[in-house]
Write a structure and sequence with these properties.
Structural class: alpha/beta
Shape: globular
Largest sheet: 6 strands, mixed
Helix content: 40-55%
Number of helices: 13
Distance between the termini: 32 Å
CATH architecture: 3-Layer(aba) Sandwich
Length: 319
């Protein structure tokens, strides 16, 4: 897990106990053994929850899981810390990729005796992401994100959960912030905080992984024996978010800690300037689902109207 050859682990010692280290964290100028790295992950998540008041004792959380490393890692971290947390998986209908991701989520839950709520776009709403992308003539990530946001919110509210947890890590948040800042998308910047409070039709949304990087969550899964989906979504090719990550990775390589400085600097010094844009009290109710809507129908129900019942589009035709 460390950069360099196989002699690294024999030469470098854990900062805490001086036993052989298994990972180096350059932004902290630290190396850790297995036990102290896992403890570090526990502490970073606990610090994020406490610092941003994400969860309170006795509350129930619903974790949006994809079968990937980040969502399974945060579900595991929350359960280990004693939080009551169920999982939520949304089947997006992206061919073999969705079948595989569902398998990882189901096995993780079954092996640990955890509850997993499942929603299937095609079975429950009459469409899938490849078909919706073709019908709307928009990039697949647009239909995917819209569908997940609506279904995540609805499942959390209908299930009586106190918070919806997502697996966004520091790399994710820094990349989104980078893109939103480049275009000065103030409405999005207003919702860049690691906690979005509950509102009419919206659950509280929290991101407890914001203090851990993608590399760290991958290492956590390996050390905890968590099997996860490694492949990227086949429909994400060309996603600008991936390009922003690559640019920030270059900066991080040259200046360790840049991502954390960028993201947490924004939270400390600039996020308050966009506070007003986060308020959504002026929304009406969708005539179809009753959820928050800017017009007679919410964006999700408009998508359902257009895509439900359409001839399914094979994934390979949308790549």
């Amino acid at each position: 897990m460390a950069d360099g050859d196989g002699d690294w682990a024999r030469l470098v010692k854990c900062r805490v106990c001086r036993q052989p280290a298994i990972i180096d964290l350059r932004r902290h100028n630290a190396n850790f053994c297995v036990d102290h790295f896992l403890r570090y992950c526990d502490q970073q998540v606990a610090k994020a929850i406490d610092e941003f008041e994400m969860l309170r004792p006795g509350e129930r959380a619903l974790v949006a899981v994809s079968g990937g490393k980040d969502s399974l890692a945060i579900w595991d971290l929350l359960v280990r810390a004693g939080w009551e947390a169920d999982g939520l998986y949304v089947g997006l209908g992206i061919g073999d990729y969705s079948e595989a991701s569902a398998g990882y989520a189901r096995r993780f839950a079954a092996e640990r005796g955890l509850a997993l709520v499942e929603i299937d776009l095609r079975a429950d709403h009459g469409y899938d992401v490849p078909t919706a992308a073709a019908v709307t003539r928009r990039v697949p990530c647009s239909a995917c994100g819209l569908s997940k946001r609506h279904l995540f919110d609805r499942a959390a509210l209908d299930g009586g959960y106190d918070a919806l947890v997502t697996g966004h890590n520091l790399d994710d948040e820094a990349a989104v912030l980078y893109g939103n800042t480049m275009r000065w998308q103030t409405d999005y910047l207003a919702r860049q905080r690691p906690v979005l409070p509950a509102g009419p039709g919206f659950p509280r949304k929290v991101k407890p992984l914001v203090r851990l990087t993608e590399r760290e969550t991958a290492a956590y899964c390996v050390l905890r024996g968590i099997d996860y989906l490694v492949e990227e979504c086949p429909m994400a090719a060309g996603n600008k978010h991936l390009a922003y990550k690559e640019a920030l990775n270059e900066m991080e390589l040259r200046s360790p800690g840049s991502k954390a400085d960028f993201y947490f600097g924004f939270l400390a010094r600039a996020a308050d300037r966009f506070e007003a844009g986060a308020r959504r009290d002026d929304l009406g109710a969708c005539r179809s689902c009753g959820g928050p809507a800017e017009s007679e129908l919410c964006a999700f129900c408009r998508l359902v109207e257009r895509a439900a019942g359409a001839e399914p589009v094979p994934v390979e035709l949308r790549r």
